[in-house]
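QA checklist item 7 of 12: single-chain prediction sanity check.
[x] sequence parsed
[x] length recorded as 322
[x] structure emitted
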Amino acid sequence: MSLTHPAKRVLVTGGAGFIGHHLTRALLGRGLAVTVLDDLSMGRRENVPAAARFVAGDIRDARALGEALDGVDAVFHQAAVVSIRASVEHFVRDAEVNLMGTLALLREIATRRIPRAVLASSMAVYADSPRPEPLSETAPTVPISPYGVAKLAAERYWLLLGAQAGVTATALRYFNTYGPNQTPTPYVGVITIFIERLLAGAPLRIFGDGEQARDFVHVDDIVAANLAVLDAPAASVAGRVFNVGTGHATSVNEIAAALIHALAPGTQPEYLPAQPGEMRNAIADASAIRTALGWTPRHVPPEFSAVIAFWREGAKAGRHPR
């Protein structure tokens, strides 16, 4: 597909991380020049393709930002500290990176009048839902975690200041992303964490009763949503927020049962107290992005085979994927 937005060089912040490196490869596959900015606190240098220009640095560092933004005409902001649990205890660090880091980047985008900018936001911006019913973009945004508060504030700055600067700014609210080469972080990478533990012969640990429902969306579908925004006319995406999820509810108990069946039949999970800040239910109504951009998820319900294969290959090679 030819690009509606004539991007030549794009920046992917956090491009050495899970979603970021998949997105980087897809952009390179389209013939675009790609710069990756990453401090490697969560990502891995080997994730960055040789064809991409790599800038090592923190999103809050003006020097690194200036170098990374040189010659860029579109930005995909993926860099973040992605951990709801950690944000409860370390809320200052969470805000410093996820909000203040975003504002530092946004200031440079606005100053340089970079034409298009896409923010990775989160389902964590929504109020908790007592039932596993799909949430539209107009659902109440009353976050129950510091991570969600920072993401919601970042969204509002992104759209407001982007519009004032004449930047086509868009926010994508990711639901629970999974896929090969995912960095296991508390809860966000629950499928990866479960596979890692089962292959290591360790029991699964489920926080709460396990009936909390999530919308697990494959990383390939997340990448496709970002590309759809880049492809779209500015009028279709400027100032817009879109959910990126499948609309399919899966409980943590269902995920555990499927993975135990595949990897360690007979294993019994351990149940621990629920963690503060985590939503009971988070299911996406993705009709807005489907209507506006024609995006639809391809991986429904969750598919585990590629993730399991990735971890098994890592075990055979004697490495521990991070």
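[x] summary fact logged: The chain is about 40% helix and 20% strand.
[ ] second reviewer sign-off
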